[in-house]
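Q: I'm writing a short explainer about DNA-binding protein for a general audience and would like to include a description of its predicted shape. Could you first generate the structure from this sequence?
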Amino acid sequence: MNSRSKKETKKAAVLPYMCEAGFFVDRGMRFLHRSDYDRALRCFRRAVELEPSNPENLCHLAGVLAETGQFESSNELLFQVVNEIAPEKSEVLFYLANNFANMEQYEKAEEMALRYLQESDQVEYQEEAHDLLEYIYFEMGVSPRRYFGTPLESLYIKHDAARKSLEEGKFFEAIRTLEEIVEEKPDFIPACNNLALAYYYTGSIDKAMSMIDQTLEYEPGNLHALCNLAILLAHCNRMTELFPLLDDLKKVVPFHPEYAYKLATTMGVLGQHEEAYHLFVRLFRRSFPQEASALHFAAISAYSTNRIQQAIRWWQKAKQMDPTAGIADYYLQLAQERLLGKHDEEKGRKPIPYYYHQPMEPLPEEMKWNSVEEVKDDSMIRSSLLWALQYGKEEVQEMVIQTLGMIGDEEARSTLESFSETTNNAKLKQKARIALKQLKAKHASDNAANETKADLPAQADISNDEVSASIKASFSADVDKPLREWALMRWAEYLEKTAHPLHVRKPVAWAAALEYLYQKSNGQKVTQAAVAQKFDTSTATLAKCVKELSMLDLNLF
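A: Of course. Here's the predicted structure. Afterward I'll give you a sentence or two in plain language.
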């Protein structure tokens, strides 16, 4: 009796554990992050049972149903939210538009997207809604209708132009346009996010951080801004701030493909390749990637987690989509060598950056001097150049500076100016300044030549470019590298300081004078007669050039 009574008493002491809806939401998110859709569905359904009027829980459940292709069931829940529970959640209309588009019910998809644009006072999905409508009209085979119809139309047009500039690698051009947009409408979130990225790509880290802070003030949970913030914190080695943010980002399961793609690439950039891989897998289950770069990034995540066969499959598909770039070819060879155990161990251990280009160490030979026009017109090469200038090794950065000096357009000048102001590497700073001085000198000499050509005697019409060419021909890029760079910089500075350069018959006389001054400034014993004889010019002409160059501060560098 006593023993039985004790057992009954012990059983009576066990209390049932009552879980709240939030518990099942958290578990559902974890299962969804692992692509365990059955358990995620059970958790979200339980959360809805406990809180049937909570619109967030209903949207979570609708999102998983859409992930598994159950679009009709997803739509039932979304209509319940927007029609009965929370009509103010206009973003639900955008979710419905996506579902109908996936069901190939394009007229209903158009209706939902237009309602979203008309009823929403947010800009969170407006850009994506425009893109979706363009896709819908393409599938319907009709001309795009006027669906802007708001005061924001001109801003969207400008933003599309800025986004195109970013895609073409013209980051400073994009910055100018985006700054105008943000000044006019500071809460235009897509422009703020793209401006932060453009600042980051051009090395303006403080400006990028400030723009992200501004974005998060307007919209604290904006995923693009949070991802950008994580990358900047990692770049600045602010790990105590990065780790909690990274933990929060790992819990996010994006509904929209664009956000899933953003989060996947961010995880990859931050070295969280396992999370990146699973995000890419889930993303590709819903929609096949339309760009080779997405497959390339997914392949990197697979390669970095030792899923070599999967990486090869994705790179093969990327090659089919972009057969001429040669990017997939390079990494396919790397992956196949690793699979066969023939790869270079040091090369195989080196992490692959989440960037759509071939390794740039060294730069391809044709990018150095021979194909300037091709470099100007190739957006991928220009983007790669800027990336390498900011994050490549020093020898690669030197080559990029040289290439930008050759290109010489406004974007190249802006890039060099920004780099010379922000880099802490004194040697690279000097090289960027030399390139800028040469560009400015060439521009000034071209203008001066146009203005004064008619007034100059024919025998004195010597091109300043011929002087630069003479310097390069006289001084080897390898053996005489310091002298060559010093002479080019001094010549550029001279052209800046004088409106009418001294004209001499032989441009090599300037090279001789510059060598003489270089040797003297370095404490070498040298005579003008010896240098003149070496360069096959007269001592008198050499003396004139030396006197003319004496206006320069030769001890400046």
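A: For your explainer, you could say: Residues 5-10, 12-17, 360-371, 448-463 have pLDDT under 50 and may be disordered.
Q: Perfect, that's easy to follow.
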